[in-house]
Amino acid sequence: MGTDTILKVAISAPLRRLFDYLPAAGGKPAVPGGRVRVPFGRTSQVGIVAELANSSELPVSRLRRVQQVIDTAPLLQEADIALLRWAARYYAHPVGDVFAAALPALLRRGRQATSTVRMLCATAEAADLDLSGLAQRAPRQAAILTHLLDEPIDAASAPEQIGAGWIDPFRRLVARGLAGEKIIDLATSPRRSRVIQAGPDLTAAQRAAVDEALAEATDPLPLLLFGVTGSGKTEVYLRVLEETLARGSQALVLVPEIGLTPQIVRRIRRRFDCEIAVLHSGLSEKERFEAWMSAQSGRASLVVGTRSAVFVPMPDCGLIVVDEEHDPSFKQQEGFRYSARDLAVVRARRAGIPVILGSATPALETMRNAELGRYRRVDLPERPGASSHPRMRVVDLRSVAASDGLATTLLAAMQRHLEAGDQVMLFLNRRGYATAMFCSACGWTADCPRCDSRMTLHQRPYKLRCHHCGRQTDPPSCCADCETELKPVGQGTERIEETLEKYFPDMPVARLDRDSAHNADSLKALLEDMRSGATRILIGTQMLTKGHDFPGVTLVGVLNADQGLFGTDFRSDERLAQTILQVSGRAGRRERPGEVLLQTSYPQHPLLERLIDGGYADFAAEALAERSAARWPPFSHLALLRAEAHDRSHPADFLSRCAHAVESSRAPHVSVLGPAPSPMERRSGRYRAQLLMQSPDRRSLHVLIDNLLERIDDMPEARRVRWSLDVDPVELF
Ligand code: ADP
Ligand code: ZN
Ligand code: ZN
């Protein structure tokens, strides 16, 4: 046999290896990074050639042939393949699944890769049309047409530019002869990028950050950009992007949430005329495919996306930006459990390009990396211009009356700010109306029959819901045990909203949580009303912390700062500090100084005192000292093995067996905690348990994991549970 005649193919299957095939009989040759259709069991599958090799562990006579070569040019370059294989090893996840995560669904199913893009444009007829007529009859169509008359837009960025759900109105415009599609060949349309608006003069600190990010280096260290909200981090990104584009490179910008893409894209678009491929979970398959192709072909200058965009191939990527790098959303919590932030660092290092990690509240891991000199760090200590840091103080819930979850001190402050014409934002991380339904006679509570948790009462619609499994029932009218009337207890956002309407009858109140912002359009409308000032008081959950800026807000109230003060997870303190600062950071962007009130029953808690007196840097130093003493990350590395089953004994049996396997392998420097039931043991009718493996040395941990996974394959106990492995877990349940 000749050399390199075995194809090692990544196929989406729960096996931790590549599969060997012989080339197709005749036809075009397969290429690494290109797709092939192969026989797999009794079916056929689309896979990606990861490597050409000249030998196989199997006898050649047992190998099957590729059925069809789909791509004759690679979709993934060598560097992309190397990153995916590295990720599969690091996260100990089946390599075929990892490759699948990197491709849009249409490509996974075998759709031809195109070298063309669809441009949406207005027709000549549209130019003569009286738009006001159309605007009355069909406002959505008119808005889209106005946009297209301005300039044709790439279908890949249509959702961003003309809104999700653009397809129907666009089709109607086409039917009326007012709009159409033009196909453009990527090969003959080079990448363009042009600055259309200069940014403001940089502050000295921003200048230093930009210079540091662009400093000539063959292997630049990751750069931590540490600056409070509003300190001008985005402006730094924009300058560095500008320089990167000017050098003819592409750049990748990662944001934690789909909801944050429009605002960053809007800011980029105001600055540059260039192709932006936007990638997030809210796209249709076709949109996703087009955006991906635009990045992969090199036509898009910028790729802006959430987590999975870290895998998007870009032929000339010269910079990666990870905004809000501390955000847990960068970690995928199911299936292939990777951290997009960490992979961005790995990708940049392998490519020898700079990566900027920006945050007002960096992850303690990142702070530590900067402390050790593995990352560079530049601080932006001040907000540019007149706006200053908000003033933060606690409201002691033990000494002031707080009916309905709102202390009198807070109510008075709200009154003051509202009378001055400003907006108020309240944070409570509990959606729904009441946290439980409670019988005051016998203590009975409405619990979820499938989970170890209480049901949350919702008013609109009137239901009991379990926030862990999604179960929903009609609220009982009285106690199941003693027939006493039930009382709703605890405050959720719906209930606070109702209370606010009582206290401030003339003020428009809005609520931002997963129930009120159930889709992209409702979220957009809520944010819009807040920005325009139509909403005066906004009550919301964690969603408020996600980088949305509300310039008119001067007062922020954190209704329950105690949530998280006594958490069981070693990260609770960090999360709480981040949440408080991120919520506060939304306030006081204008000239008037902002004010932040934290309602707590523990005003002397050291964490709160640190945070208020010294800000995040002080808090982080203290928290890192505690982590060091307790040997938690970043002073050790973790891998969490989870298992669940309907039968309570099965997860425990399986994990005990695993714990034995680990102990008998006598792996040095590794300790094992558990097995133990998960903090919420029963969820969706399944019992859950976990085994935590910990080591100060990453390599030892990985040797152990590889070893363990091999043993698990032979364990009969493994077949009775659903299990998963989480390397560098961010949640310990
Ligand atoms: P961050 O990303 O840290 O929250 P931004 O970059 O959004 O901060 O900046 C906050 C506000 O300050 C924005 O309105 C931005 O336009 C403005 N800004 C940023 N840098 C400057 C500067 N050098 N001069 C004037 N205004 C600036
Ligand atoms: Zn009762
Ligand atoms: Zn439940």
What features would you describe in this structure?
The chain is an alpha/beta fold. It has five domains: 2-108, GIY-YIG endonuclease (3-Layer(aba) Sandwich); 116-185, no CATH class; 193-380, P-loop containing nucleotide triphosphate hydrolases (Rossmann fold, 3-Layer(aba) Sandwich); 391-434 and 490-627, 3-Layer(aba) Sandwich (Rossmann fold); 637-727, Alpha-Beta Plaits. Strand 16 (317-323), helix 13 and strand 17 form a beta-alpha-beta unit. The two termini are 52 Å apart. The longest helix has 25 residues, at 606-630. The protein contains 21 helices and 35 strands. The chain is globular and about 80 Å long. The protein binds adenosine-5'-diphosphate and zinc ion (2 copies).
Just name the CATH architecture of the largest domain.
3-Layer(aba) Sandwich
Largest sheet: 7 strands, parallel
The CATH superfamily of the largest domain turns out to be P-loop containing nucleotide triphosphate hydrolases
| Termini gap | 52 Å
Question: Average pLDDT across residues?
Answer: 90
The assigned structural class equals alpha/beta
- Individual helix count: 21
As a whole number of angstroms, the C-alpha radius of gyration is 28 Å
